[in-house]
Amino acid sequence: MDLEEGTITVRRSYAHDTKKGGHADVLPIASQLAGLLEEAIDASKSQLVFPAADGSMRTDETDLQQVLRRAMGRAGLVNGYLHVCRRKGCGHKEEAKDAELRHCPDCEMKLWPKALARHLRFHDLRGTTATLLARAGVPLVVAQRMLRHADPRLTANVYARVDLADLRAGIARLPPLVPQVSHEARATKNRGEEPLKNLNELAGESWSGRQELNLRPPGPEPVSGY
Question: What pLDDT, in 10s, does the model give residues 192-206?
Answer without folding.
Answer: 555 545 544 444 444
